[in-house]
Each structure stands twice: as C-alpha cells, then as structure tokens.
Design a protein that fits this description.
4-stranded antiparallel beta sheet, binds S-adenosylmethionine, about 30% helix, alpha/beta
Length: about 290
C-alpha cells in the first residue's frame, strides 16, 4: 500500500469504510497478524490488523474511557486489573489513571503490536508501559486465564473481532477462565462489536457468559471508526447492583478519582446501559 492510496476495511461484506492513506508509517506481517499503521488527514494515525481498524488517534479515547472507567467506578474498590489484548496501549493508559490500583497485568498475544505501537502510536500508551504496577505477559489470553494462579477485580477483554487470533476470546473456555480468576464482586467487560452489524456476536456472547455469571448485559457507546452504529461492550458479574449505581454515587467516585475525561461522565455511564429494543428483543428471544 503506497502513499495517496485508499485503504478499505474488509470486516463486513458489502458495507464498509475507507481511509485515504496519506503516509504509511509501518507495515508488517507479524507471527499472528497483518499489521499496518498509516496517517489519515481526518482520523490521525490509524492502526489496522488483518484488514480491520483497531484504533485511531482521533477517536480512541471514547472506547478506552468507556471500557475502563465504567467498570472501575462501578466496582469502587478494585485493586487489580487484567487487560486481555490491548496491544496499542490505550486501555493501559486509562487503567493506570486509577491511583488506587496495585496490580495491572496485560496479556497480549502479539509482542510486535506492543513494540510497533510504542513507536508509532506513542500517544496511546503515553508512558503507561513504565508504570511500576504493570506487568506484560505475551500469550494467548485464553491460555492465561485458564492457567494463572493470579486473581483480579476487573478483567477487560480489549481484543480484535472473533476472527483469527481473536476468535479464542469469544469462547466458553475463555469466559470460564475469566470467571475462574475473578475475585468476589469482580467484573468482566469486553468489546463485543457493533450490534447492528454483529448482532449474532452479542447474542452468542450473552448466552455463553450466562453459563458462568449471574448478571450479564451490555453497555454501549458510539465510536466513529467502529462504524455501523453503537459498539456494545459485554458486561458480566455476579452482582446486578454493580451496573445499577446512581449518578450521585458515580459522581462522588469520579471526583474522588480525580479523573478528567473527554467522553466519560457519570451521566454517560448510567445512560450507556440503556440498549436498543432490537438488541433486547434478540437477547430475550435467545433466552
Ligand atoms: N479496539 C480494538 C477493537 O475494538 O477491535 C482492539 C484493539 S487491540 C489492538 C486488539 C489486540 O488484541 C491486538 O493487539 C491483538 O494482537 C490482541 N489479540 C488478539 N487475539 C488475542 C488473543 N487470543 N490473546 C491475547 N491478545 C489477543
């Protein structure tokens, strides 16, 4: 792919998005995936894996703020977080902003993604890889959660779509492993696709998670480069109260955490658990 070409996303048949390529910064066939990082006038630096946009400089904050501050402020007393995937470093950056955390582990299958994003997407990790609380493990996330003796208060699955290496992170084995290494009152969240276009993925995740967790639902946000509508985030715990906190409680915790965000606020938090009727219908039709 050369400068001034056009890059077409290949996630969905017959419907998609494109980016003009102003400058290719890096392209590599890693051991696991085809990685490209290029510059685009509208969205800044764009990273794609196997033809699917993973993150862009311009709108990454929405996704990373929602997958971290919603579960962490809902939990209220988390000390340990496990990130599965997350090689671009944006999720780690937002998790590290919570000073009360004592241990942050990231399990990423592809060391090349971490290394190239440190160089070519430095604003994503913004130095978070140097946080003394942080440990990086290079492994398939499903191996880690089924074998580790560590436990966590929050698990965030920041994975690719369920194609290629990401497929294992949408399996019952993975969800069982996450349940196995979550502490009491723990929360599991995961990127679960754009439900208007990937509704089956949401229904399947909901069913599988329901075998291991007492309270399974979704919350959502609209992220421009995950096009096609709202992105759904899977939510699973054994305590329904964790996703029903009132705005006042969340505001108190938000202020105590000293967070300033560009998308997240307590009203967005509570509102994000409201889901479109077509998704609710699909979830209830599937039992
Ligand atoms: N924001 C993106 C999204 O919603 O599609 C995800 C971004 S992040 C770059 C996805 C990461 O998941 C990549 O670094 C990829 O290497 C990693 N990954 C894919 N499959 C994995 C697996 N089985 N175990 C651990 N990491 C995995």
């Amino acid at each position: 792919m050369a400068q001034n070409e056009t890059w077409y996303e290949t996630l969905h048949a017959g419907f998609g998005q494109y980016f003009s390529v102003d400058n290719v910064l890096y392209r590599e066939k890693t051991e696991h995936q085809d990685l490209v990082i290029f510059e685009n006038a509208a969205m800044g630096r764009v990273m794609a894996l196997d033809g699917v946009v993973q993150t862009t400089e311009r709108d990454e904050f929405i996704y990373h703020e929602m997958l971290t501050h919603v579960p962490l402020l809902a939990h209220g007393a988390a000390k340990s977080v496990l990130i599965i995937g997350g090689g671009d470093g944006g999720m780690l950056r937002e998790v590290c902003r919570h000073a009360q955390l004592e241990r942050i582990t990231m399990v990423e299958i592809d060391a090349d993604v971490v290394n190239f994003c440190k160089t070519w997407l430095p604003n994503h990790s913004a130095g978070a890889y140097d946080d003394p609380r942080f440990q990086l493990v290079i492994d398939d996330g499903v191996n880690f959660v089924t074998q580790t003796d560590q436990t966590f208060d929050l698990i965030i699955s920041d994975c690719t779509d369920p194609i290629g290496p990401g497929e294992s992170l949408f399996t019952s084995a993975f969800y069982a492993g996450c349940k196995r290494c979550l502490n009491d009152n723990g929360i599991f969240v995961a990127q679960n696709g754009v439900c208007f276009l990937q509704q089956d993925e949401a229904v399947t995740s909901h069913t599988k998670l329901g075998h291991y967790f007492g309270d399974v639902s979704f919350y959502q946000a609209a992220i421009p480069t995950y096009y096609g509508g709202i992105m759904t985030f899977a939510w699973a715990s054994d305590n329904p109260a964790l996703r029903q906190l009132d705005v006042g409680t969340l505001q108190t915790r938000f202020e105590a955490a000293g967070l300033t965000c560009r998308y997240y606020n307590p009203a967005i938090h509570t509102g994000s658990f409201a889901l479109p009727q077509y998704l609710l219908n699909a979830l209830s039709a599937n039992g």
